[in-house]
Amino acid sequence: MPKLRVALLGAGRIGSFHARTIAYSVPNARLAFIADVAGSLAESLAKELEVERWSDDPLEAIERPDIDAVVIATPGNTHAALIQAAASAGKHIFCEKPIALELPEIDNALEVVERHGVKLQIGFQRRFDSGFLKARDMIRKGEIGKLYMLRSVTRDPQLPDENYMKTCGGLFRDTMVHDFDIIRFLSGLEVEEIYASGSALVDPMVERYQDVDNAVVVMKLQGGVIATIENSRQAVYGYDVRAEVLGSEGAIRIEHSHETPVTHYSRTGVCEDHVYWFIERFASAYRAEILSFIRSVIEDTEPAVTGIDGRKATVLGLAADRSLRTGKPVRVETL
Predict the structure, then answer these.
(1) Boundaries of each GFO/IDH/MocA-like oxidoreductase domain copy (predicted)?
(2) What's the CA gap between 56 and 35, in Å, rounded?
(3) CA distance 206 to 9
(4) Which residue of 110, 155, 210, 315 has the fewest CB atoms within a 10 Å radius of its CB?
(5) Any long-range contacts for 298-302 (C-beta under 8 Å, 24+ apart)?
């Protein structure tokens, strides 16, 4: 069987990681084109990975007849337009979150995808992490009994720069969407109501964009199950992602913080390192999600994370935004 010919759109930090995954770890796919509006990034990555063709125009990759699929890792405010262009050209699509920041844009993109019959997988990599997968399997098997509560924590090591803050859509739709998605993934339940509280404590710059950098969300899920989410834009010790699920027969904790599995014991105490950023924490999950996408295209199966999953996470982000502004709980169905 000929290899799936893939174009990378966006050669930044996560795009470069995906490119190396396709080039070195996916035997049934070939990285055939790299595009980035910063042409020097595309050229440099293409040279490193021995990819013959590159461009500073993502549409050039989309329009090529010798490309079967695209991986979109461009800034979030470009995703919806690129999804629509790729779907219209008959290309299968892997896209980093978000599809878009507003529901009309998301719905337009999903309609084009459905009309042209292509695959669309959204980049919620936590679903492919071994810890989250094991926890979900245990919950499905009833090993902790009836679900009572879930908790998800995400803390970034540093605040993004101001250029990123201008277009990211805010904490709830940029960072917390991962937590919204993983709560749905672990519980198998939909969120019915959200209450959000937050503050801008790290940098006054955040307030200029009507955003917060530390926030807590309380959610009521189907059947009365309670979930809480905690996000911070600054944890000086490094990237911190954790989750806990409590049930009638026990609890599950998902936590991975060490960059190396070494603990040093000495007269001065105990010392362990801590993973600093998201790629180091979720490297294997990022590889697994690309492998899953390629497999779904080749085997003609539904992607593991659909466009509807991406939409539902953004809906919850919008509900949290509304709750923060009004100071009141928001029924998700009202959106």
Answers:
(1) 132-253
(2) 5
(3) 29
(4) 210
(5) 298/1, 298/4, 298/28, 302/119
CA distance 137 to 163: 40
Answer whether 132's CB lies under 8 Å from 186's CB.
Answer: yes
Residue 249 scores a pLDDT above 90: yes
Q: For residues 65 and 85, give the distance between their C-alpha atoms in angstroms, rounded to a whole number.
A: 13
Query: How confident is the model over 57-72, as a mean pLDDT?
Result: 97
Strands 240-247 and 250-255: antiparallel
Tokens 């990378």 correspond to 8
Q: Output the furthest CA–CA distance in the chain (Å, rounded).
A: 66
Cα gap 78→82, rounded to integer Å: 6
Tokens in use for 88?
């219209």
Q: Is the pLDDT of residue 19 over 70?
A: yes
Q: What is the mean pLDDT of residues 301-321?
A: 98
Distance in angstroms (rounded) separating the CA atoms of residues 207 and 110: 32
The pairing of beta strand 4-9 with beta strand 29-35: parallel
pLDDT at 22 over 70: yes
Model confidence at 1, pLDDT cuts 50, 70, 90, reads: low
Q: Tell me the fold of 4-118.
A: Rossmann fold (3.40.50)
Rounded Cα–Cα distance for residues 125 and 129 (Å):
7
Q: How many Cβ atoms sit within 10 Å of the Cβ of residue 253?
A: 12
Could you tell me the pTM of the whole model? Answer: 0.95
Amino acid type, 221: L
Phi, psi (rounded to 5 degrees) for 246: -115, 135
Q: What is the distance of C-alpha 272 from the center of its chain?
A: 28
Mean pLDDT (whole number) for 81-100 = 98
Parse the chain into domains and list their residue ranges.
4-118, 127-282+313-334
What letter represents residue 159's amino acid? L
How far apart are alpha carbons 328 and 184 in whole angstroms? Answer: 22
Q: Helix 79-88 and helix 103-116: axis angle, to 10°?
A: 20
What's the CATH class of domain 127-282+313-334? Answer: alpha beta
Tokens of 274: 């801590």
